[in-house]
Write a structure and sequence with these properties.
mainly beta; 4-stranded antiparallel β-sheet; 5-stranded antiparallel β-sheet; 51% strand; Jelly Rolls; 0% helix; 121 residues
Amino acid sequence: MPEQLYKSFSVTGIENKTVLDSGLSSTTAEPKKLVSVLLKVSGHIDNEIVGFLERESKLEIPDYLVITDEASGTDMFRSTNRKIEIPIDKEIPVGQTWKIGLKCGATLKVLKGSYRYEIGG
């Protein structure tokens, strides 16, 4: 089994825009397979977590489905049933980049997490 590595990311949303991180790139020297993404949002406000392979949308998840540390209203107690890790299990073609981001409405939040990936193949 190939070694699994992690690369962290942080995305600060902007009102009424989609903001992406710098991404995880696959190169000839280091071809990558994205195993999963680990996610946490700064709060639930009905924003959307998005993932792109280059310009192709691959992931759209409402922020309510992932874990948060916010302690207000319905988020008062730590979740035991919200997602922390989203399985992807896809090779990233050489020369391409997978990016994760946050599509905010009128209220910005912060998305933090990590890519779990393998090198080689």
